[in-house]
Amino acid sequence: MVAPYNKILMIYIEPTPYILGLINAIRLHWQGQIDVLFLYENYTQRWNIQDENNNKILFSNNIKRIFQILSQLSIKKYDYLHLAGWGSSLFLLLILVAKYKKMLVSIESDTPMPPHTAWWKRVIKRQVYPIIFSFVDVFLPGGKKQAKYLEHYGVQSKFIYQVQMTVDIKKIKRYISTLNHVDCQKTRQCYKICKSDIVF
User: Fold this and answer.
1) What is the pLDDT of residue 2?
2) Cα–Cα distance between 182 and 188 in angstroms, integer?
3) Average of per-residue pLDDT across 92-97
4) Distance in angstroms (rounded) separating the CA atoms of residues 62 and 93
5) What average pLDDT does range 120-130 have in this prediction?
6) The model's pTM
7) How crowded is the C-beta side of 69, counted as CA atoms within 13 Å?
8) Which residue, 140, 158, 11, 159, is CA-closest to 73?
9) H/E/C letters for each residue in 14-35?
10) What are phi and psi of 21, to 5 degrees?
């Protein structure tokens, strides 16, 4: 990214260890301003993470949440908006608002082509997705299948940059290094895993 785009707003679903790790890594290498908002605190599970960087959790009320984001966009005058997907109606609204404000928009995605989709959903997506995607400047799919999904709905390959989505491997390795043989046996017993079964 070039120098003029030095104020970035990133919006994610929830603060997970790997998302916070990613944000911290970006901040180490990026000299501009990065603000981060989360839609929920514990959406998929009870992470209960102590966030030392004061990233903001948005209001739970959708109307308040919209005004909260629009207010921040107006006050901070961001150059760039990064979203974790397009599945939220709020994200769809923000894509349009960002384009109105002449901001660059990037979207990351871990969505591959589903094996079975109802015919009416396929028809709607064929009509709607190309329109939505035309307002996005950069797509960051988490692999080849995710990239093919975007291309299926009309996104040109020049706007697609594959990225590696991962968990916090260093933290997992540190945790594993604290386990001994007895801990491993207890885990196997807890989940009724045979001694001969491979666990990873």
Assistant:
1) 45
2) 10
3) 93
4) 12
5) 92
6) 0.82
7) 26
8) 11
9) CCCHHHHHHHHHHHHHCCCEEE
10) -60, -40
Please name the residue ranges forming H helices in 6-118: 17-29, 62-76, 89-100
Task: Tell me which H or E stretch contains 108.
Answer: strand 104-109
Residue of 160, 84, 99, 97 lying closest to 135 (CA atoms): 99
Q: What is the DSSP letter of 160?
A: B
Q: Which structure tokens are listed for 85?
A: 């997907």
Which residues lie closer than 8 Å to 92 by C-beta, 6 or more apart? 86, 132
Yes or no: say if 96 and 136 are a contact pair by the CB < 8 Å rule: no
- Using the predicted structure, report yes or no on whether residue 36 has a pLDDT greater than 50: yes
**CA dist 162 → 30, 65, 90 (Å):** 20, 30, 24
> What are the Cα distances from residue 132, in Å, to 9, 50, 69, 85, 108?
20, 35, 20, 12, 14
**In whole angstroms, what is the distance from residue 107 CA to residue 103 CA?**
13
